[in-house]
Amino acid sequence: MPANAKSIGLPAGAVRPDGPEPGWITARDLAFLIYYYPFQWMVRIAGGAFFPVAQYCAERLSPWFQARERRVVERKMMIMLGISLPDAKRLARKFLRNRVRAALSDLRRKNGIPESVKFVGRERLESALEAGQGVVLLTVHSLAKRECIDAIRQFNRTFVPVVAGARRPFRAHGRLLRNFARSRLLPLQATLSGDHINAKDPDSGLQIARVLREGGLVLMTPDTAGSAHVYLEFMNVLQPVSAGILDLARLTGCAIVPLWASYQDEKCVVEFREPLAFAASGNREEDRRANLPTLLQTMKEQILAHPEQWEFWDRRFIAR
Questions:
Q1: Could you tell me if residue 10 is inside a domain?
Q2: Which residue has the higher pLDDT, 60 or 233?
């Protein structure tokens, strides 16, 4: 939490963006344990058929270990979505099941068995690229984002996702298995991550501009604290939103295309929406004030379309 949290009006007792300390065992622990001990060798025999079995087992076991976490997610959903407790319970159960599916994503990718991906509205993306100014893909932290990134890398275009900072995977693992995470997950992610731009690098803006000048694609997720974030009322709570994407649109003239990524049945669906129309007065502060409502509304629509697949339910600012 920033040192001046009170001066900017964060809720009393707000948690850090990383969320509270996890319990002893998490959904990712279960997914990795099922995979590594003792079934890793079965993937070589059964191939992709193994992962539905592993997912089923982890989903059935996870309620025994995630009761506390589920209650936290339910409470946050009630506040941020304005829904009743029964609806929050239903969505929270779906969220935890989807997180098990996402936890197995790295393992599927490692074995060359990615999820099937379906693209919708790709003609909108191609039309935006024809302008020659590059395209920023605007999305939120959905659980299907990894599969989405892998699929877009197959396009015949320069493509780089922007990450908010250094990878910190240990929150995804409980206190019991952090050493396991350090020895297994970090090397695995290093082999799968591919090229990316760290938003906190001093020259990240130049790197992004270079990709856009080449007519490439840049993926950005403004629903988190970035190098140019502001604290705003969003989804009924005060939380950090990265406004750097607005500065990019003003300075480079690139198109901003919303991208929705979601799990739907047995597929990961990636949908390209109509490009956003931003005001351009030439003044940074005026443009921010004019365009922030559009940015917030676009992110809110993405989250509400599939609220059970937003990755940040356990990481947002919520008053205790």
A1: no
A2: 233
